[in-house]
């Protein structure tokens, strides 16, 4: 099995390419360390939504709905205000329709490539974002910290390891998510109607007109209940929905099954993520976003227990970390 890791380009942008047998992955260090492609080259599967060459300018302006963007802190914050330890951090209001800040500060800026390489069993790349005074992120989150992101590719799929290290002198918020954009269909000869999905959702949060949680749950529909067991189309209804996670058998995951190909794509995200966002672009068939998220949307402004809403605090010297995996299961075997 061929294992390779090398520096190249992707649609004209600097990229690190990983290969492991039939699997291939591409990460863009200078655009938020976005894992822009994960493919099965033998079967011509493209699991993630990738930008075409013509789409690259719009992608760079808004690198959210392709690949696996890293959100830190994720999703929406009311009026751009983020109360923390007796202070209120001010974030730019970049979603005029709701008057909120949206998606944080790390998905559209350069990360450093710390190392990449391959051996007889896998290929890998590690990317680092080091925030110190004077960094663009420090202006909004005034803490010294490092985010280290490693992607590993081997015969069992794509592995993602992330760690946030507080290297400052006071406690910092650690709120993170991925705006993961999954193709449906991912197989070249399949149709959206060939796909059914499952997610480990729990309760659905009620959102107000500004897409912010009210702190209450709303009743799941009959179709949403089906999401827990599988077989439902990811385009059954327009979704921009927020749920708690409810791990099954110790795992927190999304499964997408192509019934025509007899292939199941598994996105196992780890149990540190306490919330899901699900967005499917108004039920427009082609792609959807199952987004694992540590925290409730707008968590610092919600009067609920920190453990319930995933409001994680890192003390000086502490490290938070989690692993996720994308892999396939051949249902015909």
UniProtKB/TrEMBL annotation:
InterPro entries: Aldose_1/G6P_1-epimerase, Gal_mutarotase_sf_dom, GH-type_carb-bd. Pfam families: Aldose_epim. Transmembrane segments: none annotated. This is Aldose 1-epimerase. It comes from Paenibacillus alba. The lineage of its organism: Bacteria, Bacillati, Bacillota, Bacilli, Bacillales.
